[in-house]
Amino acid sequence: MPASPTASLPSLGQAILDRADQLARHSDMEGGLTCAYLTPAHRAAQALLAEWMAAAGMDVRVDAIGNVIGRYAAAAEAGPGARVLMTGSHFDTVRNGGRYDGRLGILLPIAVVDALHRAGIRLPYHFEVVAFAEEEGLRFKTSFLASSVLAGRFDPALLERRDTAGISLGEALAGSGLPGGGAAAALAAAAVDPASLLGFIEVHIEQGPVLLHHGLPLGVVTQIAGSSRFQVRVGGTASHAGTTPMNLRADAAAAAAEMVLLVEARCGEVASLVGTVGQLEVPNGSSNVIPGACHFSMDIRAGEDGIREAAIADILAGIERIAARRGVSAQVERVTPVNNAPCARWLMDQFATVLAKRGLQAFELPSGAGHDAMMMQRITDIAMLFVRCGNGGISHNPLETITAEDAQLAAEVLVDFLRHFQPRQDA
Ligand code: GLV
Ligand code: MN
Ligand code: MN
After folding, report:
1. Is any ligand 1 atom within 6 A of the Cβ of residue 298?
2. Atom 5 (ligand 1) nearest CA
3. Which residue has the CA at smallest separation from atom 3 of ligand 1?
4. Domain check: are 166 and 47 in the same one?
5. What is the per-residue pLDDT across 168-215, written as a single tens digit (0 to 9) for each?
6. By the number of CB atoms within 10 A of the CB, which of 232, 234, 275, 325 ranks highest?
7. Taking all residues of the chain, what is their mean pLDDT, rounded to a whole number?
């Protein structure tokens, strides 16, 4: 075995960053990066990723939801029963997002496979890199579409869900040219066989300030916080802003404002709990009309499922109380609740060993952000490697950044991890 396939490629980190820049040129917006599921920009990014996987020596397939899956086939000695170690992350983005969220976890393993391939190194197992097509929930307001298909957890009722232009997920898939044309059976058939998997690992930008604060380039994730998202529709009475006395109004926006403050107050009560209203609108509002409707999103997360569920129960009861007192209606739709996902100690330990060999601290931290690994944890053991986020740890923002040095180090750690990887003994 050559000593280090990355030693000959000291600019791997910079190459990863360059590719993130190249990928970010495909955007739904001018002057920033938005890559929503199945838009032309998304399809272009998907094609580019497939091209890079193929050039790195992988066999590439695209599944029924649009995931691009590259397989770096096992060494011949592994035989026909070789199993799969899977990695990957998402290439869709939030609106005006950063270029590393998700994408780092695709570009980095592609670069690693490329280095292994060039060095003539095959692994004793298949290594698959998945570019997940949808994780953020931007277009259909439901996240983890792509990983839920791969994990065999896709809910076919979601095919009816519509984007803001009125196009359903089923229609978008039917017109996409993806295999299966959006048929529920094809989406079910795209599930991976859990018995074929050795585990799932995900490299991701931390999206927070903890590693930066500790002066550490990399961290090992202990668990991923569970999350619940909701869409709330408050209905009031639209009427004249000049003639309707303040005590005779059913103002949907004022009621929503009180509900937003309730989310903030309740989620501020427990340290590990967070709650966010990221979307808030008065549909067809006018400055001289009392809002007859107000729609908003709620995103509630906690490291412990019980803490999240207790907060949700309180908030939903509070929303009802506010609506009743103000004479408005409130419809609450729950979307994609995902439970807390613990990482597997045996995989975390293997990352820790690799880090220790390089003299690096195996710093452990939980993830407050959601990741594709959460869905994969339903069918296999998972681990995550976090890479330090610059600019104060800002993410879901164009200011999100990492350094080439940290990307290089993460790539080298991944190479070592893959070359020394030991399957779980009882698996
Ligand atoms: C994904 O980025 C999420 O945590 O919402
Ligand atoms: Mn994200
Ligand atoms: Mn992400």
Report:
1. no
2. 370
3. 370
4. yes
5. 999 999 999 999 999 999 999 999 999 999 999 999 999 999 999 999
6. 234
7. 96
pLDDT in tens, 294-309: 999 999 999 999 999 9
Question: Is it the case that residue 337 has pLDDT exceeding 90?
Answer: no
Please answer whether residues 274 and 368 qualify as being in contact, where contact means their C-beta atoms are separated by less than 8 angstroms.
Answer: yes
Are both 272 and 320 inside the same structural domain? yes
Query: Is the pLDDT confidence value at 144 over 50?
Result: yes
CA distances from 228 to 152, 271, 339, 378 (A): 20, 17, 8, 17
pLDDT digits (tens, 9 = 90+) for 313-336: 999 999 999 999 999 999 999 987
Task: Please name the amino acid found at residue 30.
Answer: E
- pLDDT value for 425: 83
Are 140 and 65 spatial neighbours (Cβ–Cβ below 8 Å)? no
- The reply to whether ligand 1 has any atom less than 6 angstroms from the CB of 136 is yes
Same domain? For 61 and 189 the reply is: yes
CB of 236 within 6 A of ligand 1: the answer is: no
For ligand 1, whether the C-beta of 369 sits within 6 Å is yes
Regarding whether 187 and 133 lie in a shared domain, the answer is yes
361: which DSSP letter? -
Domain span at residue 286 reads 226-338
